[in-house]
Amino acid sequence: MENFYCEHEAPAEAPQESDPLAISRRTFLVATAAATTLPSMALPRPQEPTADFEVTTQIHVNGQNHQLAHDSRATLLDTLRDKLHLSGTKKGCDHGQCGACTVLVNGRRVLSCLTLAASCDGDEVTTIEGLGTDEQLHPMQQAFIDQDAFQCGYCTPGQICSAVALLKEARAGQASYLTPLQPKPELSDAEIRERMSGNICRCGAYLNIVKAIRQVQGA
Q1: Are residues 155 and 183 both part of a single domain?
Q2: What is the domain range of residue 97?
Q3: Whether the predicted model's global pTM rises above the 0.70 cut
Q4: Beta-sheet strand order (sheet of 108-111)
Q5: What would the pLDDT profile of 79-98 be if each residue is shown by its tens digit?
Q6: Considering the domain boundaries, does residue 42 fall inside one?
Q7: Residues 138, 190 within the same domain
């Protein structure tokens, strides 16, 4: 006879099959830590680049010869300012769009921010400091003062170097987009503006810049 006062044992549960995809939180954390740690322990650190970019360049700047050891990727602008401490040449846009960095290389105007210093090996470079002296200004420098052809002055060194080259180019018969097709064409104001269009003046002193160039042209 069944005794209702006796505890009956609960029937044993059927064993569950283990889920091969089941994972505990502890197992997940251990596996994650191992995955992020082992690769850094097993792989060596990348080596620093050992390429030698230093070159030696001979540059004649403002009448003085310089032998410079510099990075082959250095621009003429940075070399003039950082190596030779000629801070008159200004860094504007650093993309060849404003003309503030204009200097003369073998008498021709170049954008020094786009010119590699190594490409000027053996060349004659003239910056704003080399055009005149404190006692005797270059005629173009004096004309810019006389005609009040600047305001803040940041773009002025590039403007003056460009203007000096402009007159040299015109006298040599080098044509611009606006040069009329006639013997010995006159240098008009419109052509001066065209030839100076690569030099931006944020202060808007363009009218007086043209007057300064006219002053030197007629001297």
Answers
A1: yes
A2: 54-130
A3: yes
A4: 64-71, 54-61, 124-126, 102-105, 108-111
A5: 999 999 999 999 999 999 99
A6: no
A7: yes
